[in-house]
């Protein structure tokens, strides 16, 4: 029975890696559409979002089977329950990458600043997703904590973008609506970083049994707005 359980845990890790890769691809497609206007990237983002939803359901089914049929001990129970929470965050990452691609069509042809920092945000957020999933598979606390530390960079880039766009609006920029759209895009990337942090915190819990992670502050109001 234990050997079967270990095999299913291995499958769980593989499925999580696959879902994480889908999230990375979704982010890459969204930012490429935003920066280059390649309509194929928007279509890809739509397809990937559907794949991510299916993968979430598949992993959820596998986790429930592990919980109901294998009667895991405490450490394994934390692993499986953490995986269930992780896939919820990854599903939201896929949704938000798709939302970015939806907003991007109103921004791509506008001569507005902030795109370079948006690109940096996307790159860092994608890295956070990769490292968070990798830290779960490897049970690597150092990797998990590095994800939490990277969130400061994403937050800093968001503030940079916000300040640039505020200055542009103050300059009576005629592209005011597009500036607001770009700010929304930056906010979605910032939220993707937060979801990656949630995943990393679940890794720390799965390994240590403790929720004593970096205090991320009260972002409840932002989550209610951007996770609808």
Question: In words, what does this structure look like?
Answer:
Helix 1 runs parallel beside helix 3 and helix 5 runs antiparallel to helix 6 (176-208). The chain is 84% helix and 0% strand. The chain is mainly alpha-helical and 228 residues long. It has helices spanning 2-36, 39-69, 74-104, 115-138, 141-170, 176-208, 220-226.
Structure at a glance:
The protein is built from seven helices and no strands. It is an all-alpha fold and 228 residues long. The longest helix is centred in the N-terminal third of the chain and has 35 residues.
* Main sheet record: none
DSSP helical segment count: 7
Percentage of residues in DSSP E strands: under 5%
Mean pLDDT metric? 86
Number of DSSP-assigned strands: 0
Query: How much helicity do the residues have?
Result: over 70%
The gross shape turns out to be elongated
End-to-end distance: 41 Å
Gyration radius, to the nearest Å?
Answer: 19 Å
Q: Kindly name the structural category.
A: mainly alpha
Order of helices and strands: HHHHHHH
Query: Which stretches of 5+ consecutive residues score pLDDT under 50?
Result: 214-228
């Amino acid at each position: 029975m234990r050997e079967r359980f270990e095999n299913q845990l291995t499958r769980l890790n593989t499925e999580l890696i696959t879902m994480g890769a889908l999230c990375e691809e979704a982010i890459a497609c969204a930012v490429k559409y935003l920066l280059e206007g390649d309509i194929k990237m928007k279509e890809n983002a739509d397809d990937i979002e559907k794949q991510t939803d299916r993968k979430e359901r598949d992993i959820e089914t596998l986790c429930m089977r592990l919980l109901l049929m294998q009667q895991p001990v405490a450490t394994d129970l934390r692993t499986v329950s953490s995986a269930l929470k992780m896939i919820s965050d990854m599903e939201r990452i896929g949704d938000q990458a798709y939302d970015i691609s939806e907003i991007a069509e109103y921004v791509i042809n506008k001569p507005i600043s902030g795109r370079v920092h948006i690109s940096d945000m996307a790159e860092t957020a994608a890295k956070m997703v990769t490292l968070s999933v990798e830290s779960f598979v490897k049970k690597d606390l150092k990797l998990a904590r590095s994800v939490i530390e990277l969130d400061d960079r994403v937050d800093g880039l968001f503030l940079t973008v916000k300040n640039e766009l505020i200055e542009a609006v103050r300059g009576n920029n005629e592209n005011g609506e597009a500036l607001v759209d770009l700010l929304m895009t930056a906010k979605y990337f910032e939220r993707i970083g937060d979801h990656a942090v949630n995943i990393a915190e679940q890794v720390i819990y799965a390994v240590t049994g403790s929720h004593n992670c970096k205090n991320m502050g009260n972002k409840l109001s932002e989550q209610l707005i951007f996770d609808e």
